Every structure is written in C-alpha cells, then in structure tokens.
Amino acid sequence: MSHTAASVASKARWEHFPHDADVGVRGFGATAVEAFEQAAQALTAVVTQTPVESKARVEVNCEAPDIELLFVEWLNAIIYEMAVRGMLFGRFAVRIEGQRLKGTLWGEPVDVKRHAPACEPKGATYTALKVAADNAGIWSAACVVDV
Amino acid sequence: MDPARFTRIDETTWRVEPHGAMRVPAIIYADENLIRDMDDKVYEQATNVATLPGIVQASYAMPDAHWGYGFPIGGVAAFDPDRGGVISAGGVGFDISCGVRTMLTGLKIADILTVQKSLADSLFRQIPAGVGSKGAITLDAIDMDAMLTGGAHWAIERGWGEARDLERIEEHGRMAGAEPGCVSERAKERQRREMGTLGSGNHYLEIQAIAEIFDTNVAAVFGLELDDVVVTIHCGSRGLGHQIGTEFLKEMVVVAEASGIKLPDRELACAPINSEVGQRYLGAMRAAINCALANREILGHYARRVFAHFFPDRDLRLLFDVSHNTCKTEPHVVAGKRRDLFVHRKGATRAFGPGHESLPEALRATGQPVLIGGSMGTCSYILVGDATGEQKAFSSACHGAGRAMSRHAALKQWSGRKIVDDLAAQGILIRSPSTRGVAEEAPGAYKDVGAVVVAGEHAGLARRVARLRPLICIKG
After folding, report:
1. Nearest residue on chain A to B188, judged by CA atoms?
2. Which of A31, A101, B216, B448 is most buried, by the most CB atoms less than 10 A from its CB?
3. How far apart are CA B201 and CA B198, in angstroms?
C-alpha cells in the first residue's frame, strides 16, 4: 500500500510497510540507485512529514559484500549522520560502484517545532531485507528499521 | 498463531518438540488468547533460536512475545561456552540494556493533583526527550571511557545521582567486564551528547499512582501503598548501544558463516562465545550496559531536581532499576549441575526469586522487583521474581505489554491530538514533542498488559505486587 505522503513520480516512489514493533521502508525506482534514494526518503518520513530543506551537504561512503547488505549500510550511514549532526535529510544522491556506495545527503538541523519528529531510527535491520527488480524492470529496496 | 501447532503442557505452557535443526524444544508461556493473538513469526523465531549451537534447555518466549529481529522480542535463551555456545547481537537487540527504573516519592495522589499541570510542564522542559532534544552533558574521550567502565557509579561520582541507589540497580550499578576499547569511535561519537536524554519511540518518564495492591506483604517490603506516587523511567543506552548493535550484527553474519554456523535468518547472526569477535562483543555490550545504567541514573537525578523544586521536603528513593535487553553471565542449575551460562534476554526482564545472592539484603527475602512498562495511558505493573522462575526460564519474565498493532496501523486509526485530549479528560497528562509520535504509541496499539502479567504469574515466572496507573507521561 502506498503512503499518503509518498512520491507520485512514475517509477520513483517510496512507501512504509508495517512491522509489529517498528516500521519498514521501501523505495522504488528505474534503477537500484534510484530505489536506494527513494528508500532514504522513506527513512526521513519515519521521523517527519514536514519538507526538509537542503541547507547543508554531507558525504557518506559505505561498502558491503552484496547489494542487500549495501542497502542496510546506506541507511545506517544516514541514521548515523542524523544522530551525530542532529540533522534531517530531504534529498539524496547515490553512486554505486561494485561493492562501494558514495552518497550525498542534503538537509538541515532538526527544528523540533517545525519538523515535530515522531521517532528516532535506531538502526536498519536485515528483517524483510530485499533489493531486486520485478518483471517490469522496476527496482525496489526495502528493510525494517528499528525505531 | 494456531494453538494446534504446539503441545500444550498446562494452562500457560506451550511447547514445540525439537524437529529439523532444532537442538532443544521451544517453549512459550502464555494463555490461549495471547497465543492466538501472537504473530506466526514468534513461532518461527523461537524455533530458529533453538537451532543455535550450545543452547541449553530450551528456547523460551515470554507472554508478551512478538516479532523481533532473529530472536522474538520476549525471547530468552541460555548458551554454554563449553559446549560451543554462541553470543548473538540480535539476541540482545539494538537498544542494549534498555530497561526500567522506578523511584518512590513518598507522596500521595492528592499531593500531585494540586500541581499536576505545572509538574508535567516542568518535567517536559527538564527531561530532554525525542529527536532534536539536546542533553546538557558532553563527554570527552576520557569521560566517555570512564562512563563506559563505571556505569551508575560514574554518574554518581559526577554528582548526577545518589550512592544509596547503587544496591538497587542491577549489577550494583556497574557491569563488570566492560571494555571501552571494544566500542568503536563511531559508537562513542553517537553518544557524546546523548547522556541524560530519554530518546523516543516507546521510551518515557511517567509519574504513576499505585492503583491496586496484589501482595500486601511484598508491597510493604517494596515500600508501596495504595495511592502512593512513583516515578518510572523507561530508556536504554541511546545511540551508543544502537551503533554497537548495528556494527556487530554486520560482523557476526560473516563470523557465523566462517564458523560453520548455519543461520536460518541473518538477524540471528552470532559468534562463538569463546572467539575473538564473541569476546569483543561482550566487552562492547557490557560497556553499553554501563551506558544505560549511567543514563537512567542521570535521568533519575533530573527527576529528583524537578521534584525537589515542587516538594522540597521529600526525596526520591530508588525501588529498583532493571534491564530487559541484555546477555548476562549467570550461574544456573541445569540437570542438577551448576553451570555458568550466557543468558540472552531480548525484551525479557531478569526476575530473580527469593534468596538470590545478588539481591540487596532488604529484598532478599521477597525476590527481585520486576518492572513492567505499560503503554501511555494504560497501567504498568510491579512484579516480584518467583522461586519457580529459575526452573521455568532461567529467572526471566515479560517486559511490557508488547505491541498488538504496527505503528503504521496505529497512525491510520488514531490522531495524536485526540489521544492527548482523551487522556487529559481521564486525568493523564501527556507531554511529547510530536503528536504523530503519540498516535504511533497509542494505548490501543498495545496488547492488554494485564493479561500478559497474569499469564506470567500462572506460568510461575513472576507474581503481581502492584498495578500502577499513569498521572503524567513524558514521551520522546
């Protein structure tokens, strides 16, 4: 089911899916890269439904033996930057080369009043972890996030 | 779940005989309704845990069990290092040493009602809660390592707590065997400004009133009377624990494979206890336990400061502080022999019965207080560890109501604003930076905590001492 605030672009979109105690994030796109970027939007939407402004840029790098584990690393890299910088991110650019990912995050410091953050992601998990393309060639990247 | 999938041993004991790769049975303690309401994932995860090397006796699930990560939340499993036993980052969880403390105020409901609103506002201002809240403490590298080794002792030495609290904290406030050197710089960086913060999600600080006493004698020893007011804090090791959990989960997936451990689920990633990674995780996890103990001590200190302002002639005394996401080395008697086991409790509370050597003198005759969080707006419980708990599940009990509904479904069903208003009409004041967060944590999204604790009592895990109802809830 798609989330009310989900992106409505043709292939690029995201959604949340239910988990008993936590929440699942899933990004869709024409490529794995686009699905990764959309899932990052879903991660931010776990915290806030307010648009996040692109006031500052942060670079992240991660590495993993396969694309699914790389997806978890990507989300965990964002969670880490959110936590140590006290920021939220609203725009994402990803490059994947082999087992390595370079990501750029654009965002701003958390404004408690404006963003009204609902909860804090603790870590991306291997639960419901899947990165794959469907028969129509649309990529999705998903996992449950512990909150 | 379909109860027919189990062998029913008695009213509250449901057993799955070992089959396939299971080394021991899986045992769930719950009544029939709770079993029916549980997700099938609990069956799958409890039986998966039973396949892990070195597991002793059984893979257990508590009455509040629900779908977790590798282990069910509400899962208990003990491993013997001398028989190839493992330690699992997923079996401890991301929020290492998340737990509950309850403090006695010496006040009655009537004392609170006259100042309820201003007390709620003051607590909300003074207790950093939720994303974007800022703690007043920043740790440098030396302080960080001292905190990770010293736990609540460190907090007290720094003036954020009272020495008399220590005997009422698990491990007497300091987990032995912590190795700050095993904690990554990233994990430390994540914690640098997070001491004395509550976090978010299901974490809270509540002012509660004793609404019902079940065991007058034990309640008297615990210092609980009808209409008494207590302060209860639920939180854990914050960013540090989360980062340690994340990093070791990744590492243990590789180690498990290299050690020839066949994982039915990647979240069950584990390492032999007697391995370099296993020992390193233990050092880091124990440091995170100290972080949680220090954090709750500091939050308790903040609560004391606020209460001292409103009630200058009263002081807050700690009843107990106990974690529910840990792996502890404990001696247990198995088949007549005392063995040192590594007991994982993921969303399960240690519940030592009467006479246990680790309990302070004042509590030794009754057993350990077991603190069960409710959900905003519903009741919490104080239980006492039962003598039979040792045999039943290595002295473990439930930890809370357990969710009955996902956050997603809760958001569709409730409005945060309406919940706050409805609870205010019932005399419960909620303070939270996020109305959406309140909706996700709606009381109706949780199971009936009353049914959970009754099932635990019938199963011989822990007995009810008192029921508490909330007056003020500060949510992250």
Report:
1. A84
2. A101
3. 10
